[in-house]
Structure formats: C-alpha cells, structure tokens
Amino acid sequence: MSTISTALRNFKEPTKDELTEIFFSIPSAASTPPAPKDEVTNKTEEVERMEINAVMSMGVHGEEDSYAGKLYLIAPYLTFASLDRKSVRLTLPLSTIRRVERLNARAGIYALSLALWHGSKIIVQLTSLRPTADLFCSLLRDALKIELQKGQMKKVKPFVKTCYSETLVTESATVADQEHEDGSLIAEEKDSGPRESTFHGGLGLRFKFPGDPRKLREASKIKLWTQYLKTHGRNLTLLRYPQCTRLVQVGLPNRLRGEMWETLSGSIFLRFSNPGYYEQLLKDNEGRTSASTEDIEKDLHRSLPEYAGYQSEDGISALRRVLQAYAFKNPELGYCQAMNILAAAILIYMSEEQAFWLLEVLCDRLLPGYYAPSMHGTLLDQRVFESLVQRCLPMIHDHFQAVDVQLSVASLPWFLSLFINSMPMIFAFRIVDCFFCMGPKVLFQVGTAILKINGEKLLQVQDDGHFLHLMRDYFASLGESAHPDSNDPRARAITRFQELLLVSFREFAVVTEEMIQGERRRFRSEIIHSIESFAKRSAVRNLRTLERFTKDQAGLVYDSLYRAMCVFPPPPATLPPPSLLTTDDQAGADKPETRIGLKTFQYFLSEVATWARDEKIVSNGFQQRVDRSVAEHEFIDRLFFFWDVSCRGALSFQDLISGLDGVMFNGLMENIEWFFNLHDKNKDGFLTKDEVLTLSETFLFIFRYEIGDAYLGAVSRFMSNAFEYGDALLPQPEEGDDSPAPLPANQPYLNLATFRMVVLADEILESFFETDLTASFRLDPLPESFDAAATLGPSSSSSSGILGDLWSTIATDSNKKMFNMFTDEIGKAVGKHQVVHKPSIGRYTTLEEPKARESLLTPGMRHSVSRGSLRSIDEKDGVRLTPERTTPGISPGRVSPRPVTPTQEKKRERVVSDGDSMPLIQKAAAALLERPQFEIDHVESEDEGDDAFGVGEDEDEGVDENVMDEVDAFLEAHDSGLTEADKEVAKGLIDAKPMK
Amino acid sequence: MAESSAADKSVQVKLVLLGEAAVGKSSVVLRFVSNDFQPNKEPTIGAAFLTQKCRLEDRVLRYEIWDTAGQERFHSLAPMYYRNAQAAVVVYDITKASSLEKAKSWVKELQRQANPNIVIALAGNKLDLVSAAASSSSASGDVSEDEADDATATPGEAPAAGESDSLRQVPREEAQAYATEAGLLFFETSAKTGEGIVDLFTEIAKKIPIEHILASTRGGAGRPGAGSSRANAPRADVNLDDSTKPKEACNC
C-alpha cells in the first residue's frame, strides 16, 4: 500500500508579480474561490498592473513624515511600500477609496489625494514622468469604475461593522476612560453585551484571555492602538507606519489581537471578498467524513487542553468546525497535526470565520508546504534553519555536528506550531504578533536568537535528550529576569523574553525575507529529492511481493511509473468518497493507495516497452533526436485490464510489478501461453475467431515500422495457418455441442495447443516469443539530470548526438519543442531534415541494412539477450550484443553513454547522422543555442533563425536588459531619499486644492 | 572513567515508539514513565521526549523515549527520531486490524533503515477492551469512560458491555506468529490497566546489548565536556524518577 505523489514536481518559483502579491498580503487567485456570479464579466474587466514611483504622506498636519517608495495598482488593490520595503506599507482594497482628486500644485508636481473610507486622507505624489503618471491615473480610474460596478463599495460598510477596531475607535472616549480607571478590562465586560453581536471575537471574550491583563498592560496598549487606528486607518485601510510595527512588537492587546492578526496577515481581504463562504462551506459538507475529519476528532481534545475554552463543548465544536472547513476547502492538504494547535490558538482571539481565513493564509502563504502530506515545507525550512545556524552560529553548528545532535528535534515543533507548543502561551502569542506583522522570517530570527542566548550551555550538550531538556528549561524561564543580579532595577526588570525579542530583531535583523527565499531555492531540490527517494524506498518496501524483480529493478519500475504520473497525474487519491474506500481491504481506508488510470498506464508502458511508443528519428543536419510519443492501441488497453486483477479500473504499483513479472522473466512456452491468455477474453481456454483476428492485429501493432516485410509475412502466415488448423479442428467441439450460443464469431475456435503449434511453425514468431517480447521490456535507469528535468510533455523526446548532454539542461518541455522546431527549420533549409519511424521492437534496426533477417542470433545468444535486458543497470549491454543488429536500435534515445565497440562506433557515425564527428565550430554554434528561456522564446521568425544561429540577436537582447537595469538603478538612486525641499512640497500638498 | 561510572552506573538507551495514529503510543509511554493513564496534556508534534529508569539486575537502564506522532504525513520525519535508537516499540491496536499492517511496515522499515542491532518489540495495545471477561465487574462502563478521556483513543470505539470479545480484530496467535517470524519481542498490553507494560520494557532491557553500548559510550565520553554533561543530564529527572521508582522500577 503506498501513495505516490508527484505534487512536489509541480512546484514553481513565484514570479515577480506573485512575490509582490505575497509582500502586500494580497490574496492570490488560487486561495480565492471563484465567485459564482459575474464570472463572464470578470475576464473582460481585468485592469493591467502597474507600478509607479511615488511619495506618500498623510493628509494631516503633523502626522508622520513623507516617504518615497512605489505605488502599485494590482486591481482590486492599491498598494504602497516605502523604498526600504519596511518603514511604510499599505494595502488598500480599491473599494475603500471614496474619492480621488488630482491636486492643484506647483508646476511639475503630479499629486493625487485619496480620501479613504475611514475618513483619513493620503496624498501620493507621482514622481515618474508625466505620461507614466497619466497612464497610472487612467488605469486607477478604470479599476475604480469596475469596483463600483461590481458593487464592492457597498460591501465595505457592513463589513467594517464586524471589526472590533470600529467599536474601539467610535466609542473610544468611554472605553478608554473606563479602562483608565480600572486598569483592566473589567469595566468593558459590562457593556460588551450589546456590542458582541456586531463585531467578531474569539473564545477569549467568554473564557478570558491567557495572561494577567494588568501585567500585560492591556489598558495602555489599547489606548495607544486606539490613537493609532484613529489617525492611520484600520482594518481594511490600515496604513502601516514604523509606529505600527513598534506597537506590535510590544505585544497586541488581547481584544484587538484577532483583528490585527487578520489585518496584518491580509486574511481580512479574503474574508472581505468571500462573505458567507465559510458558513456555506460547512453547510455543503455537513455530515461528511473523511480521513481528515477522523484525524481531527482524535486531536480535538489535545489542542491547548489547559485553556478553559477547550474544556467546554463550545470551544471544541468551534475548533472542529474550523479545522473541518479547512479540510473541506483544501482536501489535498486536509488536516495535519499541529494545525489543531494553531487553530486552537487563533480561535481564542478571533471568530470562526476569521480563524478559517487566517488558517488559509497560514497554510497557503506564510507556512507554505508545512502541513502538506509530504511536509516538504517543514523539511525545507528545517534545512534552511540549519544552514542559517551554520552561518550565524558556526560554533554551535559545529558542536552539534560533532556530537551528532540534530537541530530539528527541537526546532521542528517551533516552526510547525509557531512556538505555541513550546513556550508559555503569552510569550508565544507575542511572537505570533510579530510573525503576522513582519513575516515568516521572524521564526528564523527567534530560532537563531534562542540558540545564541543559550549558546554556552548548548556547547555542553552531548545528545538530543540533553538538548531538549535545555530548551524546555529555557522556555519555562522566559518570564524571569534576564539580569537578576544587576544593580540597575531597570536592567533587572528586563525579562528573558524581552531579551529574546531584542536579540531576534537586533542581532538577527540580517535575516531577511529575501535571504530565506534564496536559501529555500538553494535547498529545495535537495529536499524534494530526499522526500522522493524516501517515498520510493517505502513504496518498494511496502510491495506485497517483489515477484522475480530485485529491489533495484522494482525501483526502476517505480521511476517509470513516477514519470508517467508526472505527465498524466492520476485522480487524487483522497477525493473519492469514503464509501468507495471501505469496500477496500482493511488498510485501504486509512491509506488510499495510488492507482493509475489508463492514460497514465499508456505512458508508463511507453516508458518500459519499446513497442508501446512511437519513436521518430529526426535528423536535421546538426542534431539527431528521437521524438517519442505514446502509442495507442487496443492491445495496450487490453494489457491494462489484464493486469487489473482486482477489477478496479485502475492499477496500483503492485499490479504493475505483478503484471510485468508475468512477461519479463519467462521463456518461450510461458510467453506463448501468456499471450494466448491475454487474448482469451472469457478465459475458457479457447480463442474465438474474432479473438484470433484481434491477436493478429496485436502482432501487426507490435511489428509496425519493422523494416522489410519479413514480419508482415510471418503474421499473414500465422493467420492462414491459424485458420487452417482452426477450421480443421472445428467439427470436433461442435459434435460435443457444449456451446450454448453457436454464433460463429463467439465460438471457441483455437485452443492453446493449436496456437502454440502455429506459432512454433514460424521462425520469426518463435524468436519473438522466445526473446524479443521479453527484450522489448526495458528498465533503463535514466541519468539523474534527465530525471530531475521533471515533467516531460506528452510527446517527450530525448536526444542523442552532440547535443545529448546539453539536452537535459534545457529546462522546460516547451523550450525543447521550440528548440526542436528551430533546428528542424534549419535542417529543412539546409536540406538535411529527415524523419524516420523507429521500429517498435527494434529487432532489425540498422536503417541502411533492412535485409538483416539472416543475422539471427544463435539460440544461446538470444537467451543472454533476454536476461541481459533486465540487467540493464550494468553497462555490459552494448558489448554483449553483436554489432550487426544493435547500435541505434537499442535505444538511441538514451542519453547515457555506453561502451561502444569499434564497429559500432563506425556504424553510429554513419547511421546516427553526423553526430560525434561534427566539426568543432558547429559544436560551438550549437552550444550557443543552449541558453535560458527568454532567448529561445524570442526565436520566432525564420529569418532570425538563419542569422548565424541567433548570436547577433542574443547580443541585442543583452544590451536591452542592461539598459533597463541602468534606468531602474538610476531611478531608484534618484528617489531613495527625500530632500528637505521634497518634504516641503509634500507638506504643501496637504493644503492643496483639487484641480478643476 | 572513574567519575562517570560513579555518577551513573546507568546505561542510556534510546527507544522510539512507532505506530499508527491513535493506537495508544503516548498512553503506553505515560503508563511506563509515570504509571498514569490520563488525557494527554502534551500534543505530539514531531515527537515527545520522556525519560525513565529501569533497573535490571545490577544495572540501571535509562530509557530516553521518543514518542513519535502517528499521523501518516509525519512518517518522513520518523528517521530523525529512530536513527541511533537501540530499541523500538512498534505499537498496534488489537481492535483494529489495519494497525497491525502499519506496524509491519514500520518493522520492515526499521529492519532496513535503522541501527542494525536495534531491538524491536511489537506491542498490541488496548488489551483492556477485549479482556473484559477477566474483570467483568468493572468491565466496559469504565473502559469507555476512560478511553474517551484519553485523547488518543478513537472515539466511538468504546465497547458495549458483553460484546468485548468481538472487538478483537487481531488474534494473539497471528501477531505472535508474525513477531516470531520477524524476530521481534511480542506483548499484548493495556496502557489503561498497565498490563504488560512493565514486562514490555523489562524484556527490551534484557535483550539490549548493554556491554556493547557501554563500550561505545565510553569511547564517546573521552570527548571534552562529556563527563560533566552526563552528570548534568540525569539531574533534571531526579524528581520524576524518585516519585515513580517504588511503583515502576522493574522487578527483576
């Protein structure tokens, strides 16, 4: 039982646009469920993205400085970030913009005033060239119009009512006063009744928030925030100035925490744009169970069990609903232990709906791949963390290496549960505050800071256990003074936790989001490779039987299966309703086995059997390649159902192993029988007349493209013989008259013995069953690089010749196609383009000597061939085979080098185009063609193609790039700081009147 | 080595618990470490780490127990915990046949990937659910209640009185036969009643090549700082060990 996932192969590095979206916490298209309505209009009304240099200031005297940065229009959002990307940040749904005015200012200054929903006003000075600014304005106008048409503006009012900040700000006068008197929240509890109905809140409102409000200085925090939110906007319109980050770092007040989390993480935009989605999702899936819901049940009672809310049914059922809703929304991820901890934690501070969307942002964007079935994100970030420690704290890293202690034993739960499971909650939540505000890098910063602070003790650690104890003790002491022996009372007052944050954000400020992205990129393939080889090992280990395969061979079958799954992914194994799985044998219910459908099977077979693929040898003068595509024939479908012993319409890895076993290891007689049974549909030991015809067609299919007509002759002899013997034997079964339906076509006609006789009467068929059939199955290991090249297109191809090695480095399939088309064009131009079908079983393949029939091997040699094809890992292959019948036919498609005998060498030069003997210059020219994506993409017209292999064009391209870079750099340098005069201008704009 | 043998005659043994989710791994450990059966306060993320001493003749074994998360997707993390382990307890649930299949696959993996000398024990847990006949008076009512408290227990699997025997899905003989064939120690246990738990860990202790470990630790203790850390590490557990020793110390 094993599940095989190719999900990791589908990973794509985020594009620049996506990175911008991530930076501004804008919901990605994937995480937003498609709106059922106005789907048609959506497509036509997309406004293109644009960014522009700008200086932003608040439209109030004395409030904050102006900042230079970039303004982005990413409909339906308008965003701004200061040049340092951290001081000032704003993500604004367009629907919260009430009014945009062009300001009447000094000549040469292009400024807009934006009036926002919450009454605040921001002024942006577009500092780019006039036409650019004009374009930006018109795009903004279009985008706003669309939002208005969609009625988004009307949704703002009811939505902001669900935010606690509104209550806080509008009633701030009374609330703040009461808090001031009591110094706690008790005063608030009294009148919380009527308000609760309007704004969303968490379990904390009923079951109290963790920690002592007095110690946490809730009252003064609330006051500071009230002030900030009043002037800088809130929830949907929050403008983040440095003060905001500072306030977050001292800890969010409990009552505001939930809303600030969703505002800072951007999950508020998801909730805003998908009203009612959560309730609907729960309703649609009511009563549904799955493996995920079962797992969730097991963990409900061990999710922060010490918190009062989770000792009550209300808390538990809220937790259940949120986790289930997420599992229903994202069945592929489903539920992973540790998500329960996160969900339980955030539910203390937010409503179910808020928590649901925050969980979405967490799993999708902030902790990508952490909770996926392979947990690749977790493994990757552990590796990244380790490398960070190596870089920042080399002594600790070296010591851990020396005593063989793995960092992950402690750090894995830190990352997986955002420290909530490791630290006292009040401290963990403060880290979570920073995490939502400043991004995932916080986890790495805090992690390294923990190690640094405990550095000396860690250098004494000798084993995993000791390390864990040390960490546990440290976390338990976070509330204590960091400097208990200091004379300075202020120093004594600093807790260890404060020290931790200080070290995290000061000393490890060097750890940036970009750095982590870079490190992830560095280690991703390593991690994916280790996950995949782990999966492969367990899949092979978990086979019920290896049959006659060795483990390595089974591994090769797995590889072929895996490649096939990359190209034609089978339907997800988690999706079928549980009812389908319970009919399964016991283990099936928990671990649905990966099974492939017919389409994937066809591809798989084309990987392992030579006749199951169509191969065209294309030579175009300086490159010879084999274009491979999947052959389709009734026979392949027949094989699929023949191997589907449990009749599920899908094959498992085990089925494939068992199926291949039935054909790859047998001798002449068994193969004949196998072939007979394959065509004996009703398994009565007789073929009907129709089946004999089908069988003959199968022969023809397998022998297609064979050179010469020897095979055609053999098949026609077979048919005439079969019918002759069949007819001769016919009267006998009819005399018995057992058959109830004596329809001629369905009548038992040819039994195994007769079939065998007919086959053995023909030399070619005999040799086919003795060696060729078996030999047509090949388990060849592909070179690593080829394997890593990930998804191959449906008609993948491989190449030999001088470009063979370069081939695998051309990344994507589309690139390869481009490349092929390009070279074909050249070939045609030069008159060297040639396409030859490769024979499917590769018996007689020397293209120039089709009459090779007489060179049949002696029986002894044939025997060694069939065994040898299984031993394909070793390189004896090429040597063992006689020169006459081998060379390109074996597999010219393989890139792997194999020892070649001198005769073969000669042959190859002749047969496989000019291959190796290509002149050096041509090689160099060809090598130049092997370049990254964009150049190839630009090779469009033939004229350019002829132009000295596009070298000149390449240079132009490069120059353009450089110029753009320079321009960018220049602009940035120009905008990086604001002079006093600039600031004056910005201030002047506050009072500027709108233009007519 | 004088100071190290004085500080502890105990031999450190790394033991890892593996098995399908909700078979009661954490409960088995809890029973062994603190002779308790309780709702699990500490959710298992990755793995929980506990220690317990076990006396064996003149030696004291100090078990370092890694209680791993059972959910399938944590599987790929397991090698991190079972590497260098000297012992493993693979737990299955005798009332759930599929859990034995999973256990078998764990055993296969351990035999191929883990330390070649690893001592593997197979433990069929939740014996209390099927041996109600033995203590019929307190039988099923209590069981269901307690099991419901146990966070790792599968809800809804609590037996109704009288039906308890039919709950068994894995015959003892079948598991025993498999264990013998695969060369494993075999026990049926109940974390709830404590039955078989101490035996399980004692038998593992007996089978562990202690001299071998001692030799290798001695080699390792030559490193600077090793002595002091060995002295430090057990100190943290003194309280725990003292409180549980009267009940728990293996009686052999």
UniProtKB/TrEMBL annotation, chain A:
Keywords: Calcium. Residues 872-883, 904-913 have a biased composition (Basic and acidic residues). Coiled coil: none annotated. InterPro entries: EF-hand-dom_pair (IPR011992), EF_Hand_1_Ca_BS (IPR018247), EF_hand_dom (IPR002048), Rab-GAP-TBC_dom (IPR000195), Rab-GAP_TBC_sf (IPR035969), Rab_GAP_TBC_domain (IPR050302). This is TBC-domain-containing protein. One of its GO terms (molecular function) is GTPase activator activity. Residues 251-439 form the Rab-GAP TBC domain. Residues 852-913 are annotated as: Disordered. Residues 667-702 form the EF-hand domain. PANTHER family: RAB GTPASE-ACTIVATING PROTEIN 1-LIKE (PTHR47219), TBC1 DOMAIN FAMILY MEMBER 2B (PTHR47219:SF20).
Automatic annotation (TrEMBL), chain B:
PANTHER family: PTHR47978. Keywords: Nucleotide-binding. PROSITE patterns: RAB (PS51419), RAS (PS51421), RHO (PS51420). This is Ras-domain-containing protein. Residues 138-169, 217-252 are annotated as: Disordered. The keyword DNA-binding does not apply. One of its GO terms (molecular function) is GTPase activity. Residues 151-163 have a biased composition (Low complexity). Residues 242-252 have a biased composition (Basic and acidic residues). SUPFAM superfamilies: P-loop containing nucleoside triphosphate hydrolases. It comes from Cylindrobasidium torrendii FP15055 ss-10. The keyword Nucleotide-binding applies.
